[in-house]
Amino acid sequence: MFLSVFDMFKVGIGPSSSHTMGPMVAAARFLDRLRAEPFQYAGLRGSLHGSLAFTGVGHASDRATILGLAGFRPETYDAEAAEEVLAQIRETHRVTPPDLPELKFHPKEDLIFDFGPNLPGHANGMILMATDAQGDVILQETYYSIGGGFVMTEGELAAGRDTDEGDPVPYPFKSAVEMLDMSERSGKSIAAMKRANEVSRGGPENLRSGVARIWQVMDDCIERGLTTDGTLPGGLGVKRRAKGIRDALIAERGTNLSAPHKINDWMSAYAMAVNEENAAGGQVVTAPTNGAAGVVPAVIKYWLEHVPGAHEGQIEEFLLTAAAIGGLVKFNASISGAEAGCQAEVGSASAMGAAGLCAVLGGTPAQIENAAEIALEHHLGMTCDPVRGLVQVPCIERNGLGAIKAVSAASLALRGDGTHLVPLDACIETMRQTGADMSEKYKETSLGGLAVNIPNC
After folding, report:
1. Which domain holds residue 308?
2. Pair 239, 273 in one domain
3. pLDDT tens-digit series, residues 127-159
4. N or C: which end of the chain has fewer CB within 10 A?
C-alpha cells in the first residue's frame, strides 16, 4: 500500500475536501472520460446524493460541480476566473470545457440534489451524465468522494481499497505493526522510510519542491487568516476571530496578563486562521481534509515559532511522518466525516500532527506511534454535525482543540519509552467500527446534534 505525501496533503480550495474539492475532481474526471470516448455529446446532467445533497449548498458542492464541468481543477483554481465563468453559465446555460464542444447545461435544471437514500458505495455519491442532441443519456458514471479530495468511480470502489498500481516501493506497510517492524529491521526512521518510498516514485527534487510548496501554501493561509477580519459567508454571521486573538496576544506580551497557558491560544489562533480561510473558500491544503486543515499547520507553526531549536529544514521530516500515519488511517478506516464522523477528520489530523511533532522533537518510531494513538484515541466518537452544513460551527474551534491535543499527545509520548496499552492499529480499527455504528444523522448531514439545536436562520 502506497499513499504519497502529496495524496495526504493536496493544495485545493475551501470549504470542504469531500464536498467541494471532490465534486470538482469528479467532474474533471468525467470530462476526461468524454475526451477519451468522443461521441456526439450535446449536454451534461448530474445529481448529488447522500451527504453531498444534505449539506451540498453549505459546502458549495453544486458550485464546485458546475465549475468542474467547465474545466476547473482544485490545484489550479482561479477564483476571479471562476466567477466570470459561473456568470456566463447562468446566462447562456452552456459550458465550454477545454477540448470539448459547447455543451448544454442549465445549473438549476440539470444538477439535482437527491435527498433519497444514499448511493450504495459511500455517503458522498454523485452521478454525472452526458446526453445527445435529443437529451438521451449516452454516457454515465457514478463517483464517490471518499474524503480528503480522493474520488473513486463505482467500479474502482468495488475493486477494493488498495488501488495503487504503481511500481513497488522499498518500504511498503499497511499497518503500524508492519511500519514499526520495518523500521526496526531497516534501522530507518518512519520519515526515512517514507522518503525512500516517495523518491522511488517521483525522485528527490519532486519531493523537495513539493513539500516546500505544501508548507508555503499552509503558512500563507495562516498569515492571511491572522490578518483578515470580517464575517464569514454562509448566513450564520460567524465572525472571524483569529486576527483578534493574535492581536490581543501580541498586545499582552511582557505584561502580567501573559500567562503560560496562553500558548494554547496561539495554537488555536493558527488553526482557526486556516479554517476561517477555508470557510471563506480560500486556498488551503488538505491535512488530511479541508474540515481538519488547520491542525497540522498549527502544530508546525507552534513548533517553529515557540519551540527552541526548531527550523524549517525539518518540515519535510514532519510532513512525511504525518503522511505515513494519515495513510494508515485512510487505508484501514476513513478520513471522511460523512463516513465516520469528525473523529475521522480532526481526529486523524490530530494523530498526524502528534506524530510529526514527536518526530522532529527526536521521538523514536515507537514514541511516534504512541503519540498518534494518544491523539486519535481521545477523539473517538466525535460526531460531525455542522450547523447549516457549513464548515464553521463547530469545525473552526475544533481544529484549535485538535492542535492542542496533538501537542499534548506528542509531549506525553516523549515522556515514555513507546510502550503503551492500546496499539495504534487497534485505535484505528476502533475508529472504523465506531464510525460504522454511528447514526447517519451525526455524519455530516446536519440532521442531528448542534445542527438541529442551534438556531441558524
Report:
1. 176-451
2. yes
3. 999 999 999 999 999 999 999 999 999 999 998
4. C
